[in-house]
Design goal:
Layout lengths: L1 H16 L11 E5 L3 E6 L3 H22 L6 E6 L7 E4 L4 E5 L16 H16 L5 H4 L4 H12 L2 H16 L6 H11 L23 H16 L2 H13 L5 H9 L3 H21 L14 E2 L1 E5 L4 E5 L7 E4 L2 E5 L4 E3 L5 E9 L2 E9 L7 E5 L1 E8 L2 E8 L2 E8 L4 E9 L1 E9 L2 E8 L2 E7 L3 E3 L7 E7 L2 E6 L6 E6 L4 E4 L7 E7 L2 E8 L2 E8 L5 E4 L5 E2 L15 E2 L6 E10 L7 E10 L5 E8 L3 E10 L1 E10 L6 E9 L2 E4 L3 E13 L2 E13 L2 E3 L2 E3 L2 E10 L4 E9 L2 E3 L2 E11 L3 E20 L4 E15 L4 E14 L2 E15 L1
Parallel strand pairs: 2-3, 3-5, 6-29
Antiparallel strand pairs: 1-2, 1-32, 4-5, 7-8, 8-9, 9-10, 11-12, 12-13, 13-14, 15-16, 16-17, 17-18, 19-20, 20-21, 21-22, 22-31, 23-24, 24-25, 25-26, 26-30, 27-28, 28-29, 33-34, 34-35, 35-36, 36-37, 37-38, 38-40, 39-40, 40-41, 41-44, 42-43, 44-45, 45-47, 46-47, 47-48, 48-49, 49-50, 50-51
Helix pairs in contact: 1-5, 2-3, 3-6, 6-8, 8-9, 9-10
């Protein structure tokens, strides 16, 4: 029981005290306060704050009415420090962190490009209000807001409702995922599968349970949408308030209490609705049959060709994640690439540069040391002939389009930075064709010295591929993405696929149309003969030249102030513990924890009756810094200790990706240098298989020099993991010593035993899986052998997946 209480307290403290930093200093930060918000932003992002100001207070008022709660003051951070699409909310501390890069049409987030910052804000703001919706009478009596909201989150608020309600709100105000064809493709495929329903999986995803959008988003959006459709928005509101007000409630019990209907009858009604739509579409010529090309599935993506072979990203169970040429691995750890007709490969790499996650575009080459860097902060890219690359890049939340000439290494800007997003790029003979989302509409454009809009409709054309005089692409003209082609001479459109669950990413090889077919198990590589067309029709082409420059109001906010973030949050408690090496005596003390608003400064203070006081704090400034000041026996013979450490993770992209994690620590005792500790971890060419982190070679080296005792302790570990029979096997060599050196070898076996997927109370509790870890080693110097067995239970507790490891066997023997 004591261990359970300790585990719960650790979980509780980790959630509301150490939520992770919101940004890494230094950054030139400004802030402005409004009635309910404190906007903290990088200088130069004033225009985004002004856009948010127009909407924020109205949304605050509406969300307050829906949840019947006041969320208090909310802090919103806006920084231009990542090159991917995301954002998050810290519900415990009332903080929203907005990433400002707009999405493209390939990820299923709707068409909100012009108003992206408002759209994503509306989503994250819902997380804050839902997290503040504390209605349970017992929880409401807790004086500490952080504790109150943490317990409320754990007991009542599964991720599928958090995300579902956020999708509900984003769609209500900005036409979000409810109206997005791609997202609805993922939902449709899940509902008609024999796996439905799987909402209880929450955030879990493994080789046997998969959906591109995540179970929490897929089912959360579906559940909230259908409650509103079948009942009303007010019913949805009542279900949430009832669930957060009563003891031992879940979504099914709350649903029944409010609607008087059975939860599983509700899910069956949804199933039947989608099955009826499927049968209707199949009777009209749609199909779910496809030709299997290979064993790729799940997150297969980015299908390309050099005219002879197909290339793609494979992210399938039991396979190395990376770039493949048919069934041959070309480069691992790649998620996006393109290839020219003469075989040149360009690819994107995301690296961590002192807390900023930036994209870099590389040309794969035969260079001896590293591949050729094309440009940084790149989003979308493609070859338009064998010597020219066109790409989009981001700056301050805007997108610009550029052309790189491989012959003379020159860069030319094609389109000025503006509020648009590029979805795919192709071209030939001096013409650049691309899919662009602009003014919240996705169409096909061509550039040959001037920008011309080809299509102008409410539909989405993505995944462009130019073949002779035909432009192939995937479009949702009938509400389902399928493969089409536009003849650039006759303006006729041909339809090549009529899948019920969608066809994507066309390329042509030897008169065959290779593409991706989607079902509940992900994207599958398939093909059909090019002559197999479903229908042909002539369309009206816009062919209208458009203005490439957009006007923005970059007026600086007049009353903004410099943002200085000093430690303000404080939490602490007194304690009584057993005296070390004693069972019948005790000591007492006071323990305090503190941090600043952005969480990049955290610290602790401890003083106790053993005459020891310790102050330690951690802060980020480019890299991580750790300082500890300790005073012992301060009433008699005080001894002063000062400890300072720095650490960082360096991403290095040479011919392979490498991670280097150095740690340096120095300790002083009074005024003397006491010890110097150095450790570095090195990983070469990391990649993933299933949930295993793999790499070509790993090394860990540590040196600990005690200058007062004149000793040097050293340790070096060399290891290399292998994936065999669905398991990770990592042999190692260890060389270490203090006064005498020792050499040992060992192997760690990480073996998945069984996926149980047993869940109760709508996913609140359960068991995910059982895994076995076996570790054995032999020390040649001391002639000792040891082996240990560990069972890890993937436990679900309060909707959170918490692995619990239990030692079951240990054996040591000397020879």
């Amino acid at each position: 029981m004591k261990k359970v209480i300790t585990l719960f307290l650790i979980l509780l403290m980790s959630i509301f005290m150490f939520s992770g930093i919101y940004y890494t200093p230094p950054a030139n930060m400004k802030h402005i306060k409004t009635k309910n918000f404190d906007f903290i932003f990088e200088d130069g992002l004033d225009y985004l704050v002004q856009e948010l100001n127009e909407e924020a207070e109205n949304l605050y008022s509406e969300y307050s009415n829906f949840y019947e709660t006041n969320a208090g003051s909310i802090t919103v951070y806006l920084l231009d420090d990542v090159d991917f699409v995301n954002s998050f909310a810290d519900i415990v501390h009332n903080v929203i962190r907005l990433y400002i890069v707009p999405p493209n049409s390939n990820i299923g987030l709707g068409k909100n490009i012009s108003n992206w910052i408002k759209f994503v804000f509306s989503h994250e703001l819902n997380h804050i209000f839902y997290g503040n919706a504390v209605f349970n009478p017992l929880l409401k009596t807790i004086p500490f807001s952080s504790v109150k909201k943490t317990l409320n989150f754990l007991i009542y608020e599964p991720s599928y409702l958090h995300e579902g309600l956020s999708v509900f709100m984003e769609s209500k105000h900005f036409g979000g995922r409810y109206e997005d064809t791609l997202f609805n493709t993922y939902v449709r495929s899940e509902v008609i599968s024999n796996k439905f329903p799987r909402y209880y999986l929450n955030t879990k995803r493994d080789s046997n349970n998969f959906t591109i959008a995540g179970f929490n988003y897929t089912y959360g959006a579906l559940i909230t949408k259908k409650i509103k459709e079948y009942y009303s928005e007010d019913t949805l509101k009542k279900i949430i308030i009832y669930m957060n007000s009563n003891y031992f409630t879940t979504i099914s019990t709350s649903f029944k209490a409010v609607t008087k209907d059975n939860w599983y009858d509700f899910l069956l009604k949804i199933k039947n609705e989608y099955i009826k739509d499927k049968e209707d579409k199949l009777s009209k010529g749609y199909t779910m049959l496809w030709n299997k090309t290979n064993n790729s599935y799940h997150k297969t993506s980015n299908l390309r060709t050099d005219g002879k072979y197909f290339y793609y990203i494979k992210n399938s169970p039991n396979e190395i994640n990376g770039l493949y040429k048919e069934n041959e691995l070309i480069k691992n750890n790649v998620s996006k690439f393109d290839i020219s007709n003469d075989g040149k490969i360009i690819y994107l790499d995301t690296s961590n540069e002192y807390g900023k996650y930036l994209n870099k575009l590389y040309l794969k080459c035969t260079c001896p040391i590293k591949d050729t860097l094309i440009d940084t902060r790149v989003i979308e890219f493609g070859f338009v002939d064998n010597s020219k690359i066109v790409y989009s890049k981001t700056e301050k939340g805007l997108i610009g389009l550029f052309e790189y000439d491989l012959k003379n290494n020159s860069i030319k800007k094609i389109i000025e930075y503006g509020k648009y997003s590029i979805n795919s790029i192709t071209g030939n003979n001096g013409k650049i064709y691309f899919s662009m989302s602009r003014n919240n509409q996705t169409d096909i454009y061509v550039y040959d010295g001037k920008l011309i809009q080809i299509t102008n409709d409410k539909y989405n054309e993505i995944n462009l591929f130019l073949y002779n005089d035909e432009l192939f692409y995937s479009a949702d003209y009938d509400g389902i993405y399928n493969i089409r082609s536009l003849n650039l001479k006759t303006n006729k459109i041909k339809t090549y696929t009529k899948y019920y669950t969608g066809g994507f990413n066309p390329v042509i090889i030897n008169n065959k149309l290779y593409h991706l077919f989607y079902d509940y198990n992900g994207y599958h590589l398939t093909f059909k003969n090019l002559e197999e067309t479903k229908e042909e029709k002539t369309i009206e082409i816009l062919n209208k030249a458009i203005e490439t420059k957009q006007k923005f109001d970059f007026t600086k906010i007049k009353d903004k102030k410099d943002y200085i973030d000093m430690p303000t949050d404080l939490f602490g408690f007194p304690y009584v513990l057993n005296t070390p090496n004693s069972t019948d005596s005790y000591y007492y003390g006071l323990f305090l924890m503190f941090n600043n608003k952005s969480r990049n400064i955290t610290g602790t203070f401890d003083i106790n009756s053993l005459q020891t006081t310790t102050l330690s704090f951690n802060f980020d400034y480019y890299i991580n810094h750790n300082i500890s000041i300790k005073l012992t026996d301060f009433l008699n013979k005080p001894t002063f200790y000062f400890d300072y450490g720095i650490s960082n993770t360096f991403d290095i992209n040479l011919k392979n990706k490498m991670y280097i994690q150095p740690v340096l620590n120095v300790e002083f005792k009074n005024i003397d240098l006491n010890s110097v500790y150095f450790n570095t971890a090195f990983i070469n060419n990391p990649y993933t298989i299933n949930d295993f982190q793999m790499y070509d070679f790993g090394m860990n080296l540590s040196l600990n020099s005690n200058l007062l005792n004149n000793t040097l302790e050293y340790k070096m570990i060399l290891n290399k993991p292998f994936f065999i029979f669905n398991s990770k096997i990592t042999p190692r060599i260890v060389y270490e010593g203090l006064y005498t050196a020792s050499l040992s070898v060992g192997t760690t076996f990480e073996i998945p035993l069984i996926d149980l997927n047993l869940y109760f109370n709508d996913g609140k509790t359960g068991i995910n899986n059982l895994n076995l870890t076996v570790d054995n080693s032999y020390d040649f110097t001391n002639k000792k052998y040891s082996i240990s067995l560990l069972i890890t239970i993937g436990e679900r507790m309060f909707y959170q997946d918490i692995p619990i490891s239990i030692p079951i066997y240990k054996y040591n023997k000397s020879f």
